[in-house]
Amino acid sequence: MTAATALVLGEALIDIVRKGTHEAEHPGGSPMNVAVGLARLNIPTTLATWFGKDDRGAAIRKHLAGSDVHLVPGSDAALRTPTAIATIDDAGVAEYTFDLAWELPPVPRWLHPTVVHTGSIAAVLEPGGTSVLEAIRAHAASATITYDPNMRPQIMGSDARVNERVLELCSLADVVKVSDADLMALEPGGDIMDLARRVLALGPGIVIVTLGAEGAVGMTCEGHVVEVPEPPAVVVDTVGAGDSFMSGLIWAMSQANLLGPERRAALRAISADLLRELLDTSSRIAGVTVSRAGANPPWLAELG
Questions:
Q1: How many C-beta atoms surround the C-beta of residue 188 within 10 A?
Q2: 91 or 274: whose pLDDT is higher?
Q3: Residues with Cβ < 8 Å from 247, sequence gap 6 or more?
Q4: Rounded to whole angstroms, how far apart are CA atoms 243 and 282?
Q5: Other CB atoms closer than 10 Å to residue 180's CB: what's the count?
Q6: Which residues pair with 48 in a beta bridge?
Q7: How far apart are CA 158 and CA 99, in angstroms?
Q8: Neighbour-count burial for 55-83, b at 16+ CB within 10 Å, e otherwise
Q9: Distance (Å, rounded) from C-alpha 86 to C-alpha 16?
């Protein structure tokens, strides 16, 4: 089994978390959270992102170094570091307001990842969104592609152009992890499972739908459908929960020897039992993250 290495493309920012009268700043951004989660699970990870050489950018760089995430050169060339205000309600659920500009620095040709992940705002917001799409196309033959739309209509928009880009990236991906809210953003009022099947029909081997407190559902191109409940957890907040699920899923796939282009057929032929194991592991890892403040995914040693 070849050791997994990961390349993540997408935004890094500062989450300004507001809960009641308390405010705190934490490094965040969905793709960066996935990169940190992967590195903490001992998958060597490189992040191509876009932040500034200001104090908040220094905080992001320190956070990434603390988890041993490598940066693509030029990732700190933004005029200022992006922010997201996350307002936490009494149930621990976050609502976001963004201040974000996005470009993708050139990805070095010498990187040969076994898995490439992207998603969220950076996959859609221009001018960097088109560069992300081109990078995914360039790696599709040589790496497993994973994608999390992580729809944010307040900054991504909700027009036909956005939906077209999201669906094109779904068609290029081997694995799509999507929330019920993402699917509703794509087609308000639609049936969640019908929408997930339509995404699956675009070409992924696996589509996984996270349902919040209702757990998750996985479906495969060979017709398996698996449901898993949300594991018991004390919820402090949900910041980064979906990102931890995503990094946990990629890690679980690496442990099952399902990463890399030579394993694509095995991934598409995955059994219902193995898919359930992947979902259980991903949910357990996300459960650790929601039990503490901010996007703070677990280290491998914490999983026992």
A1: 8
A2: 274
A3: 33, 34, 35, 36, 37, 38, 40, 41, 285, 297
A4: 10
A5: 18
A6: 9
A7: 18
A8: ebbebbbebbeebebebbebbbebeebbb
A9: 6
Beta bridge partners of 227: 217
Q: CA-to-CA distance for 226 and 246, rounded, in angstroms?
A: 17
Residue 304 vs residue 198, higher pLDDT:
198
Binned at pLDDT 50, 70 and 90, residue 1 comes out as: low
Tell me what percent of the chain is helix, strand and coil, each rounded to the nearest 5: 40, 20, 40
Helices vs strands, H then E, count in the chain: 10, 13
In DSSP terms, 52 is beta-bridged to 78
Compute φ and ψ for 54, nearest 5 degrees: -105, -175
Q: How many residues does the chain have?
A: 304
What letter represents residue 8's amino acid? V
Q: State residue 234's pLDDT score.
A: 77
DSSP 3-state assignment of 267?
helix
Q: What is the DSSP letter of 297?
A: P
DSSP assignment, residue 260?
S
List phi, psi (to 5°) of 28.
-160, -155
240, 28 contact by CB (below 8 A): yes
Radius of gyration of the chain measured on its C-alpha atoms: 17
What pLDDT is attached to residue 43? 98
- The burial class, CB within 10 Å (0-12 / 13-18 / 19+), for 297 is buried
Q: What are phi and psi of 288, to 5 degrees?
A: -65, -45
Closest to 281 in 3D by CA, of 258, 265, 264: 258
In angstroms, rounded to a whole number, what is the distance separating the alpha carbons of residues 67 and 111? 19
Write down the residue that tokens 């503490």 correspond to.
292
Of 11, 13, 23, 5, the residue nearest 293 (C-alpha): 23
What tokens appear for 231 in the block?
């594991």
Q: Parallel, antiparallel, or unpaired for β 45-48 and 69-71? A: parallel
